[in-house]
Amino acid sequence: MKREHAIFLAFFVLGIAARLISLGELEWFFGSNLHVDEITYVTGDSPPYERPPGTYLLAGLPLETTVLRLIFSAISMIPALALFLFRKKSRNNAILAGVLAIEPTLAFSGLQILPSAPAAAFLALALTAGRNRPLLLGWLVGCAALFRGEVLLFLPVSIFFIHPFRKYISTAGGVLIAVLPVLIINLVSGGPFALGENGPLNLWLGSSWELLETPPGIEFEELMGDSSFADNALHSIRDDFPGWLGRGAVKTAAFLSIPGSGRNIEAPELLGSTVLKYLLPLTFLIIAMGISGSGRNPGTALIVTGLAAAFLFFPSIRHRAVFLPAVAISVSHFRWKIAAPVALVILLFSVFLHYPAGVRPGLTHVQSAQNQLESGNCEAALVSLEKAEEEGFEGADIHSIRGACIASSGGDFRIAAREFGRALEMAPESPTAWKNMAALLWNYGYREDAVIAAEKAVSLNPALGEELSPILSCQR
User: What's phi and psi for 139, nearest 5 deg?
Assistant: First the structure.
């Protein structure tokens, strides 16, 4: 066996071992239920080819949840394989590819049925197998965009990095060849713009610290407003453009910090609960050396795409993992004179940067409780809520979910009403909170009070009118 093969194989086996150990350390991995954000990408009422279409199709395979997670974890190894197989065989490249096999945030991205790992795999293939073939490179980037819509920012960004212009046109054409058929199929089926469905929402979220700090749930409903997300975002940017630029700079800095931020899930805490936390220095080195090796090439265009996505929307560990193959490939061109100050800046960001939009402690347990409640497992939901409180979570959702668990299992009316009342104290303009209270009052015979609560819920969200029609039709 050649030396470079032995080096890479050693790293690759270590990467597999790190993943397997991490699987056992995450209590939900071998469960049959979807976990937190997985439910957003796998189920729900979204039509096919939407949010995002690539993950929707992969997750639709008739396989057990644990098997799907194992497949996504295996996909997270593809970037390392691509670097080793499609680049010149050498000791340095074997080490670089091997390090990518054990890079912790990319490994972590594959531990759920989420789109980051497949997107990273396609980008790695684009920069290796397609590096001298612009059309293929663009097509593979387009395939990555079917998993993570923000990759489409590559189209405007890469015009400054891919020359001559005819090469850029060929690359852009490849992206469109991958993307347009899916868009057409989705439009014909009556769906919206598939790849960027969450784009306006995320742009709006990224325009305010208040929005980013408020977790998904009934408190967040109060901030939604009646206008479109795109209009909300544009108004926010227009009304405070300097502030928006400042927030964008902080978000970009958070994209570079180690281990990174989260939003819907407590990614730093979850990663830190596994053996992967001991490998985080590798992420630091890859980012510092990769950025110092950037130049006028597609890899740098993808690095800038990741930074632009963080600036416009918001950063997180799993979003950054998508672009790590581009950063890793740039490592081979790093320059010490640039790498040293970049490393210092990233170190300062990692230690001292205050990112205002950190995830509330215990949020992951709250979201798990919500999923467990919807699947009818109230006992497990109450346990998850206890864990959330132990970790310090405070918010309306914890009372709303507990009240729903008590009510749906036939518990004490007074306790359920007290929990719903606390939720309303914290989120008095939440239509869901009023809907829950209306249903509780109705089921226990308090008809007039139920009608009042239902009318309040519908006044806040007219879409609830049909659901609450049995209550509203009652004459007071």
Answer: -65, -40
